[in-house]
Amino acid sequence: MTSLAQIPAGGEPAESPEALLVAAVLRRDRKATAEFVSCCSDWIYPVVRRGLMPRTDMVEDVMQEILLSAWRNLASFRREAGLRSWILGIARHKIEDYYRKRIRQAEVQEDDATAGDLAPSLQFDTPLDGTVDEDRVQRTLARLPEAYGLALTWRYRDGKSLRDMAELTGKTEKAIERLLARARESFKKRWNDEQS
């Protein structure tokens, strides 16, 4: 929304602070670039941290990818979209790319007999009781092999369907089912170990 103070005498609205910042970054102004990085980092850090929980060791790397992608594509930024919305969109895509890549790389054993027998006692779609359980879940996820933790997070926290996960990773739904079965079994074992 343009304020009256931004409308010059000729009646045309002045450029927004975001538009001026983007223009300065595109001119390769170092001070503007530092301001751009600082501003965008403040917006994306909480989103990236939550998106990668419990793999917080990867937050800085993914943030760098987001900022680099934004900087490289800044010339295509449409001013009517809003800088914050634009950068958060890039962040969501980069987080999904991270999940997709890591799960795609996971070695899934093709042992149907074992996968069909795994029935975890912990119900992942049941709400947890308080912060203590949430902290315990995060600790348990952090102790899993990365692909297992990501698959469980994608499925149960983010609500991805098996079909979506398969399409995004290039795996079959059956392979994703087996990955999730192994991940749940590994989670259950570590969850019960912590209880002992």
List keywords for this structure.
196 residues; mainly alpha; Rna Polymerase Sigma Factor, Chain: A; Arc Repressor Mutant, subunit A; 2 domains; 0% strand; disordered N terminus
What are the SSEs and their pairings?
Blueprint: H1 17-26, H2 30-52, H3 59-72, H4 83-105, H5 112-117, H6 130-142, H7 146-157, H8 162-169, H9 173-195
Q: What does this 3D model show about the protein?
A:
It is a single chain. The protein folds into 2 domains: 4-100, Rna Polymerase Sigma Factor, Chain: A (Orthogonal Bundle), CATH 1.10.1740.10; 112-195, Arc Repressor Mutant, subunit A (Orthogonal Bundle), CATH 1.10.10. It is mainly alpha-helical. Helix content is 67%, strand content 0%. It contains 9 helices and no strands.
Provide the CATH top-level class of the largest domain.
Mainly Alpha
Give the radius of gyration: 22 Å
Fraction of residues in helices?
55-70%
- Mean pLDDT comes to 79
Count of discrete structural domains: 2
